[in-house]
Design a protein that fits this description.
Elements lengths: L2 E2 L8 H8 L5 E9 L1 H8 L6 H15 L5 E4 L2 E4 L4 E7 L5 E6 L5 H18 L10 E6 L22 E4 L3 E3 L2 E11 L5 H16 L18
Parallel strand pairs: 5-7, 7-8
Antiparallel strand pairs: 1-4, 2-10, 3-4, 5-6, 8-10, 9-10
Helix pairs in contact: 3-5
Amino acid sequence: MPRYLDISTWPRRDTFEFFRGYDKPYFNVGTSLDVTSLAAEIKKRPGASLSLAYHYFALRVVNETEPFRYRLRGDQILVHDVIHGGTTLLLPNETFIMAYFDYQEDFGQFMRDATKTLDEQRSAAAFDPRPEDDRIHFSVLPWISFTSFSHARNWGREDSVPKMAFGKIGEASGRRMMPFSIEVHHAMMDGITVGRYLDRLQEMLSKPADYMRTSTAAGSSSIG
């Protein structure tokens, strides 16, 4: 069950109070992720989707890292038990919808369930944004090798959901590198937490098979 953080004993209480009142309390970090090993591993798994795979790993590290499960509730912080995913899904007419999928720690189960769910939402083609904040907001821009990224924000409401973006995978010194942007609410966390998140994500991406062993991936989906 979700719980409320005891802010009175939280070492970041003063930092939380300081940034909570900002008009723009978000900070964004742009970097590159080495997905060479992930791409090679996915090739060994017929029907597996590279785009779904990097969503899986980004979401898995979110669920490992407690501050990424924090959400504002007025002057309190709710801690979700599990964070699911939402991403942009390109349609044949070059418009997009916001599609949603649930997190499963088991890689194969995640791939099967997410593929089915995204295919159903693609067929429905309904632009239906959901208000739940127990999700990470992902965007995919496979046409752009960006170095920085800024997300759309609704300043009229409280929004503490981290937002992440994946860019165009390219070659650099024989490695496959993918632009990655991560944007978080500064009242929820600081740069050290984002740094640890990125280190852990890269660790998984460098040895993906170690985190896929419970079952074999099945299904495919194109996200973007």
